[in-house]
Amino acid sequence: MGEPKDKDRLLAENFLDSSALTVKLYPDPALKIPAAPVENFDDSLRVLTGKMRAVMDTFQGVGLAAPQVGISKRIAIVAHEDLFYVLINPRLVDQDGEQDGDEGCLSFPDIFVPVKRPMRVKVAAADESGREIVHEVDDFIARAFLHEMDHLDGTLLIDRVSPLKREMIRKKMKKRGRKGK
Length: 181
Ligand SMILES: [Zn+2]
Prior knowledge:
CATH superfamily: Peptide deformylase
CATH architecture: Alpha-Beta Complex
Number of strands: 7
Largest sheet: 5 strands, antiparallel
Number of domains: 1
Strand content: 25-35%
Shape: globular
Mean pLDDT: 90
Radius of gyration: 16 Å
Order of helices and strands: HHEEEEEEEHH
Bound molecules: zinc ion
Low-confidence stretches: 1-5, 13-18
CATH class: Alpha Beta
Number of helices: 4
Structural class: alpha+beta
Helix content: 25-40%
Distance between the termini: 36 Å
C-alpha cells in the first residue's frame, strides 16, 4: 500500500519514536534481505545513524549496517579511531590489491574468521544530506566498508568462508540461540 515515499515516512517516524535499536543475530531472516536504496534525505536519517552509532559503540563494533537493526535500507556506518563514516547507498567504484585478516560481526558475537578482501577500495556514497562523497580507504577501513556493504545485499560473514568454517559458525550460533543469549 502507498508510494515508496509513504513507506519512507513511516520508517522515519519509527526511527524518531523507537528508543534503542537491537542487533539481529544470525540466523535472523532480516539479515538475508537485500536492502532498498534511501530516497528521502530528511532529518530522520541523522536520528537513525545516531542511534546506530550508539548501538555500535555499546557493543564495541567498528561498523554496523541498517539491516542488522532490522531496517532494510542501504545505510551503514563505520568508525575507526577518530574517523567516522556514514555510507548511504554506497557503491564500489574501484578496488585494488588483496589482504588477509580476521573479520568479526555484531550479528555473530565472539566469532572471528579469516576473510580475503581487496587492500584498497574507492566507494561512492551519499552522506545524510544526500551529498555524494567518494571515499578512498585501505587496509582495515576498506575491510570494514566491504563488510558493511555486504550486509546491504544480504551477504554475511558466513557466506564468505569455506564450507567447513560455515558449518562451525552455524553450530556455534545455534548453540548460542538455544542458551537464549
Ligand atoms: Zn557484520
